[in-house]
Design brief:
The chain has helices at residues 7-48, 55-97, 105-119, 130-163. By secondary structure, it is mainly alpha-helical. Helix 1 runs antiparallel to helix 2 and helix 2 packs across helix 3 (105-119). The N and C termini lie far apart (67 Å).
């Protein structure tokens, strides 16, 4: 599995992830817009009888291809770190929350890792420590999953109550 990253390494990892993710998102949007406009230009050129390659789209795609290895490397590091933290904190969290036997631990871990990846770009190093931020994101996601599960179970119980025979509710059926 490996060892935890230190607090400073995690902080730098989150900062690097935010920067690289921002660049990737901007380049993805640029490629999308250029593909649409390039397709329209190509149609007009073909209609006029001439055809020419679109260099700006090629350049943006090359920039995107250059940044993708770093993006995936940081994504894998962040995923592994979040997985290790979640795996370490899960037993204590479930014990404190008195979660029932119906909770799938792997689903909790997967949901928390995904939430960390979604929220990592919002990490602000001025507001606190990276490790405490990571554990709070994980714990909050677990609370949300348990809350949804409890709501689902409560809704199911209400529905099941409507399916019970009338004699159980003290009402005599009309025959």
């Amino acid at each position: 599995m490996g060892q935890y990253v230190s607090g400073k390494e995690l902080r730098q990892l989150l900062i690097d992830w935010s920067e690289v993710r921002g660049v990737k998102v901007r380049l993805d949007a640029r490629v999308k817009s250029l593909q649409g406009s390039a397709t329209q230009r190509r149609k007009r050129r073909v209609a006029r009888g001439g055809k020419r390659a679109d260099c700006s789209l090629c350049k943006v795609k090359q920039e995107l291809a250059a940044i993708l290895p770093r993006y995936h490397e940081l994504e894998n590091k962040l995923t592994l770190t979040a997985y290790q933290v979640a795996l370490n904190y899960l037993p204590r969290f479930l014990k404190e929350r008195h979660a029932g036997p119906g909770i799938d631990e792997e689903n909790l871990i997967q949901a928390s890792v995904f939430k960390v990846l979604l929220a990592a770009h919002r990490f602000d190093c001025q507001r606190g420590q990276a490790f405490s931020w990571l554990t709070e994101v994980i714990k909050n996601e677990w609370k949300q999953v348990l809350r949804k599960d409890n709501n689902r179970q409560a809704t199911w119980r209400k529905y099941a109550d409507t399916l019970t025979p009338d004699r159980h509710r003290g009402i005599t059926p009309m025959v």
